[in-house]
Structure formats: structure tokens, C-alpha cells
Design brief:
Elements (H helix, E strand, L loop, with lengths): L5 E11 L6 E8 L5 H13 L8 E4 L2 E7 L4 H52 L4
Antiparallel strand pairs: 1-2, 2-4, 3-4
Helix pairs in contact: 1-2
């Protein structure tokens, strides 16, 4: 999977949120719908990088829903989101590369096993009854 990037901020869609009295939510559009691993890493990174005052976030397809308080510096929410996305992209890339190495090793091992089985079959053909 290629990197996920912020495509746009949906300035037309702001919702009242019930998290706290002055809570609202806005949406950020991503350039593609992330896979399940990316979403998992995103939530772990968001929660791991969280600091005082940072609200919850949710992913729905290629949309990120960010809860904020009236009076918050909205640029700080975007800057934080960009950091989380960058960390998530890096982690997802490492995960994908690790999975590819594991799969390659498994394929080599399977090829070796198949070769050994073929050799053993040839040996069995020479057994006299």
C-alpha cells in the first residue's frame, strides 16, 4: 500500500459532538481508504501520541473525524493529525516489508520441502517389493 495523505479538510461539514459541552467535530478527507492494518496503527499512534486536551478521533473509510472544542486552535489539530499519519505510514511500511520478508522465507522453505519430497518420491520408486 502506498502512503496515505491528507487530501482536504471538509469545511462544509461540522457537527456538534456530545463528548463535552463545547465539543464539535470536523472531517478530514484522506486520499485513499486505508486498510485494516493501517487503521489499527493509526489508532495506536493517535492514542500513543496523545497529549492533554487532545480529543478522540475516528476513521470511516477515507474520512477522519476529529473532535475539538470551540476555541481550540484548529491548525494544531491538523498538525497533530499530520504527525500521526506520518508515523502510521512509516509503521505500516515497516509492517508490510516485514510481512513480505516472512512470506519470502516461507516460500523458500516450502520450495525446499517440495524438492525434498520429490527426491524422496524418487527414492521410493526404487524400492523393490
Amino acid at each position: 500500500m502506498t502512503e496515505i495523505k491528507i487530501q482536504s479538510v471538509d469545511i462544509e461539514n461540522i457537527e456538534k459532538d456530545n463528548s463535552f459541552e463545547m465539543a464539535y467535530a470536523f472531517f478530514v478527507n484522506l486520499d485513499k481508504n486505508p486498510d485494516g492494518d493501517w487503521k489499527h496503527f493509526f489508532h495506536e499512534n493517535w492514542n500513543g501520541m496523545i497529549f492533554s486536551g487532545r480529543q478522540n478521533v475516528s476513521l470511516d473509510g477515507a474520512k477522519v473525524r476529529i473532535i475539538f472544542g470551540d476555541g481550540d486552535n484548529l491548525q494544531s489539530h491538523i498538525d497533530f493529525l499530520k504527525k500521526v499519519i506520518e508515523a502510521t505510514n512509516n509503521r505500516h511500511k515497516e509492517h508490510t516489508e516485514t510481512q513480505a520478508r516472512i512470506q519470502a522465507r516461507e516460500e523458500v522453505k516450502k520450495a525446499e520441502i517440495d524438492k525434498t519430497k520429490d527426491r524422496l518420491k524418487d527414492n521410493l520408486k526404487e524400492v523393490r517389493l
